[in-house]
Amino acid sequence: MALRKVKGNLERMFDKNLTDLVRGIRNNKDNETKFIAQCIEEIKLELRQENISVKANAVAKLTYLQMMGYDVSWACFNVIEVMSSTKFTYKRIGYLAASQTFHPDTEVLMLTTNMVRKDLNSQSQYEAGLALSGLSCFISPDLARDLANDIMTLLSSTRPYLRKKAVLMMYKVFLRFPEALRPAFPRLKEKLEDPDSGVQSAAVNVVCELARKNPKNYLSLAPVFFKLMTTSTNNWMLIKIIKLFGALTPLEPRLGKKLIEPLTNLIHSTSAMSLLYECINTVIAVLISISSGMPNHSTSIQLCVQKLRILIEDSDQNLKYLGLLAMSKILKTHPKSVQSHKDLILQCLDDKDESIRLRALDLLYGMVSKKNLMEIVKKLMIHMDKAEGTSYRDELLSKIIEICSQNNYQHITNFEWYVSVLVELTRMEGTKHGPLVANQLLDVAIRVAAIRAFVVAQMALLLDNSHFITGFSQRASMCEVLFAAAWICGEFSEFLTDPKATLEALLRARVSTLPGHIQAVYVQNIMKLYGRILTSSGSDASMDEDMVAKAAVEEVSEMVAARLPSFVESSELEVQERASCALQLVKFVQKQLTKGQAAGLGAEIVSLFDGELNPVAPKAQKKVQVPEGLDLDEWINEPPPSESSDSEPEVQRPSLFATGNAENAYVESYQSSKPAELTQEEVQRNREARQQEQACNPNYLKGGGKLESKSGMFDVAEVPVAQLDLPVALKIPGLASSDHYLQKQKQTSSKKKVSTKKKKKSKKHKESSDEEELAAPLHVVNTDVGEMPEGATLSDGMDDDNNDLNDPHRALDVNLDEPLRAEETLPVRSHREAVKFEVTGEKKAKKKSSKKEEKVKKSKKQPIMMDLLQNGEHTNAPTEEPSNDFWLDHAEYEAMPDTSQSKLQVEENEKPKKKSSSKTKEKSKEKKKKKEKKVINEDSLVSSLAVEAPTFVPDLKQTMSNKDKNVLIVS
Amino acid sequence: MMQFMLLFSRQGKLRLQKWYQAYPDKTKKKITRELIATILARKPKMCSFLEWKDLKVVYKRYASLYFCCAIEQDDNELLTLEVIHRYVELLDKYFGSVCELDIIFNFEKAYFMCDELLLGGEIQETSKKNVLKAIAAQDLLQEDEAVEGALREIGLL
């Protein structure tokens, strides 16, 4: 026997302990995996030994390896063995290992139930504490159900150390076993007034977490929290309470009104930034919930904004960030008060910290107006030129578009300006937002009918100079813009000044390097243009006679027929198919031309693309009714019984028609729609406006603005360089510059002030700006939501799919004010009855019924509103929020019977307390805490002496009015 | 509620991880990897917060160690920074000017400390003194057992 012991000890001397393992790993950096594999082998051997200390050592090492990312789940049993040791040292190691390696799905967990229960009820508070800490990491629904009662017993332990752990643990239990909430809640509520501040703050934490998810059930606790808030000086707890109020106020505006004052006081007095920040957040929430009718409404919002400005101006980046974050919350409801700090926010755009710049960008979104939009966008464009990182530049780009397009282009007065901004954006290198820009171009062209002529002219230029966009491979995503350009030119081809040139641009050889879905759109629009040219040159019967027109048509047909085959050879099915169709069509036209029977053919080709397609509402697809008898979940063909049923094959399945691309689908839905007819007048006006614009544009080449470069190459040297002082150099003649509009806007506004002074000289100019002002309403945005399937309305059943069924907080949404029913108890069971739980549960419930009654009585002693209900007239509606009385206004309150006496009583009790608390403010922190405890004690005395529940309401009232007095004296 | 806490070195080595929300191991590893890469890539003068998926990440660097916590959307960032700071202070008190090596070689102590400060992602004890007292008492228990064990082995007990 002794010999074996000695031998065992000898062996242990050669074992590696944890330190050896760590050191070994550090010394074997080159062959770490090999070393660790070797260690794991050793650990496996050690785990097989009887000696518990060897095992514990092995488990400790495993915990370390687990942290390094190695799988140690195979050792679960050994972890439990170590956990069940009677020695605290090993138990500690065991529980640590368990908390790190176990999770709620671990299979061996069911073996731990009785062991954990034993530890929870251990004599040593530290063993029970270990069990609670460990359990919080791996508690499963089963464990929660089985141990709920034991944990609840710990809530009334004599040791604060255990009480506070148990309180926090209860939250985890509720999440896993929601049925525990109602039976356990009364006791949890008691803990809010626990003499130990740690327990108290733990209880606040738990209730705060619960209430944030289901606020309406916790409204009745508001009085308790209000009292805590006005008396406590523990910042950790105050923050939680204030956060809790932030969750409650949206449900009860009257609470918000009461909160404003204490919160503003805190904002003024506190030096802790975290508390200040929380107060501001809650005040914002309050202000959002109170729609109107507060006299000091604007002062408190001003106070918030003022404080936030101080935060933003602080040199600490963290405060700056949070200041901006909170500011954006205010922005939603009180944009005006934020807008006055525009300077500060624009300044933040120059910050060296990217996350701060992004926050500032968010704020800009709400600060634009019709007046300053152009200016702000200009600033952002300059930033974009300077931005070093692509991700930030992408963010800027998408923000520009987001800002401009918000609320159906609400702030845009001049769409020509917006289109030129978009065109300028196409020149951004290496951005991933090409599709976004393309989408905007399409959207504007479709929705704003009056702008089409301008867009078409710009798009034709883009197509003509497409090599600028496709020139570098890194601009890949920007080529999506060509997709939009091609479609717009084809669809609204009646606005084209030179359809033939555009057609040529579409047919260029380099087009074949574009992505397939763009080529497909090209082909389609080539045909639209072709049809347009056919109809426009020599319409109908006259064509056969008019030899010039016929020659022109033949030339065009020749060109199309010659270039289309390159599309036919495309490897993209979609392009191939469309191109072959188109080619046959052109060949047919050619044949008819030679026969001299081409009359009316143009019109017929145009009619191929006839018909208007309306925008489709974004959710229309979801609304399509499933036809009866169609089961969408049924297999059409049984899936092959492959074992490797990864999702990969599905992902890799090529989308035949490139439908993966949203833009494509979008455009296709519009294809062949007939362009909306513009009246002659409108066309005329557009033309005039355009000519005016061209005249003012120094970069505009007279005579069409297009270079007849047949080679398709565009010589940059030929661009006349005029006015180099323009901040953005224009590379493509004829492309509008957004700056131009900005200048124009400034001119107009300045002119308005100077009025008729220069009337004669600037008459033309003036006309144009007048025209622009007129044109603004002309740019009517079609804001229709789009078509929906028959019988479907926009709103029905929209939000259904937003609710997450797995959210544990759904189950915790229970009425906590309702008295407990007889069957509502926590499952209590001893070791042997474990299996028969369902059967014995009821019996137990009966046995425990006496205990339960006690519990109910206990809870009645608490000053909850239920008693008030039973006294008062409101008894008929027990399910209603019994707390309503807390929100009664003073006058309403006084009308209530039977309370004036107790009110007086409390007034007396209240005054000394107030004094003491105001004194405490002046004293040092240490003392504060002590005093605070005293106050709480006094308080509990007061409540136990004074009384019946109803006094609670006046008590609070009193607190508030006293506060008033305090403030008055101070001010 | 805090979702998890990570400690890692400037070289990107994980030194401590505590998860208060159940994730599968695979996800945990992925999150850890991504977060470490994101945070290490940030410049020193940048603010300590970043939005990451639907969580907010609060981190702070102390010497060569990064302390990083993930919290929910409506949690208070500054409070989380205070929790981190409190944890560092506690470690500092316990180890006596703590350094990375202390945490590497006594990682279990660091965990124990964490368990006394936080439970289930909520702050459990706001008083430094109480935390240190609890830890000291438990260490004492261990020592007593060690002495007892040694005596028993020699045969004195």
Automatic annotation (TrEMBL), chain A:
Composition-biased stretches (Basic and acidic residues): 682-691, 806-843
Entries under InterPro entries matching the protein: AP3_complex_dsu (IPR017105), AP3D_dom_metazoa (IPR010474), ARM-like (IPR011989), ARM-type_fold (IPR016024), Clathrin/coatomer_adapt-like_N (IPR002553)
Main location: membrane
Top-level taxon: Eukaryota
Membrane as UniProt keyword: yes
Keyword entries, A-Z: Golgi apparatus, Membrane, Protein transport, Repeat, Transport
Family: Belongs to the adaptor complexes large subunit family.
Keyword Acyltransferase: no
Domain (AP-3 complex subunit delta) ranges: 678-817
Organism: Cloeon dipterum
One GO BP: synaptic vesicle budding from endosome
Recorded GO CC terms: AP-3 adaptor complex; axon cytoplasm; endosome membrane; Golgi apparatus; presynaptic endosome; terminal bouton
Chain residue ranges for the region called Disordered: 633-653, 669-708, 737-938
Biased composition range(s): Basic residues: 749-766
PANTHER family cross-referenced by the UniProt entry: AP-3 COMPLEX SUBUNIT DELTA-1, DELTA ADAPTIN-RELATED
Listed name of the protein: AP-3 complex subunit delta
Automatic annotation (TrEMBL), chain B:
Keywords linked to the UniProt accession: Coated pit, Cytoplasmic vesicle, Golgi apparatus, Membrane, Protein transport, Transport
Subunit structure: Adaptor protein complex 1 (AP-1) is a heterotetramer composed of two large adaptins (gamma-type subunit AP1G1 and beta-type subunit AP1B1), a medium adaptin (mu-type subunit AP1M1 or AP1M2) and a small adaptin (sigma-type subunit AP1S1 or AP1S2 or AP1S3).
Source organism of the structure: Cloeon dipterum
Membrane topology annotation: Peripheral membrane protein
Full protein name: AP complex subunit sigma
Subcellular location field: Cytoplasmic vesicle membrane; Golgi apparatus; Membrane, Clathrin-coated pit
Ranges for domain AP complex mu/sigma subunit: 1-140
GO terms for cellular component: AP-1 adaptor complex; clathrin-coated pit
Lineage: Eukaryota, Metazoa, Ecdysozoa, Arthropoda, Hexapoda
Predominant cellular place of this UniProt entry's protein: membrane
GO term, biological process aspect, one: intracellular protein transport
Recorded family membership: Belongs to the adaptor complexes small subunit family.
Stored InterPro entries: AP1_sigma (IPR044733), AP_complex_ssu (IPR016635), AP_mu_sigma_su (IPR022775), Clathrin_sm-chain_CS (IPR000804), Longin-like_dom_sf (IPR011012)
A GO molecular function held by the record: clathrin adaptor activity
Gene3D superfamilies for the chain: 3.30.450.60
Alphabetical list of PROSITE patterns matching this protein: CLAT_ADAPTOR_S
